[in-house]
Amino acid sequence: MLASATLLVAPSARAWGPLGHSVVAELAQRRLTPAAEREVERLLAPGHTTRLADVANWPDQIRNDSARQALWKRTSRWHYINFSSDRCRYVALRDCPGGECVVAALAREVRVLGDRSQPDTVRREALKFVVHLVGDVHQPLHAGYRPDRGGNQYQVQFEGKGSNLHKVWDSGLLGTSHLRWQAYANWLDARPPVALPQAIAPLDDPYAQWAEESCRLTAAMDFYPSRRRIGLAYVDRSLPLAERRLREAGARLAEVLNSQLGDVVTQHAHRH
């Protein structure tokens, strides 16, 4: 059955790639309330940075850090979710067994981030995961339904070379802009504010909704190119969609951080 097959495969954890994750983080940082920004800066200060973009790719980077292999092994399934069919309806017990998927991981890490009783080191790590996973769940191929490892096994031709659909959505489409992440964020931020999709009733889990949105994009007729060639027409059609997901992710990440960090009291027990 397709439902069981999808639970056995995992997409690459590098949704959007460094460019996309940094853009999402920067767009979010520009929308933080003053209180939330102060708390972000306080949590990140021990790492000699105050910018979300500087930590947005950390949950992927630990994959190549020999000192953090246990953490990577424990969290590698947090980056994606496999739906059971192209109906893209989230059922936790079926689609997120044991809570090991991006939907449940986001919920857990958001709770940890907002818990002032937790040590700063724990909340700092949670902040890094929240920034990254909000980006992941908005990458369509991190919430697909096909048993093709999030498009990694769907081979395509792109820019005259062999590739796969996941890599195209990971970095290929965004790379056609030829912009660095700061310039890309500036360009996207200059557009009118993105209109976020309305909540889906009766679904009361925003992270599940974001995953369902991504899944439905992969289920669209023209998402998987039937001739397996990514040409100009596909890029022209798909790049605006990818950029919209980046902007939605940035706006939603800001909302999450503002809600969890925006009411920080002035007295802190600095627990490093």
Automatic annotation (TrEMBL):
Q: Which residues cross the membrane?
A: none
Domain of life of the organism in this record?
Answer: Bacteria
- Give the signal sequence positions: none
KW Hydrolase (keyword) present? yes
Disulfide bond among the record's keywords? yes
Keywords on this record?
A: Disulfide bond, Endonuclease, Glycoprotein, Hydrolase, Metal-binding, Nuclease
Task: Show the PANTHER family listed in the entry.
Answer: ENDONUCLEASE 4
Identification of the protein by name: S1/P1 nuclease
Q: Native species of this protein?
A: Rhodanobacter caeni
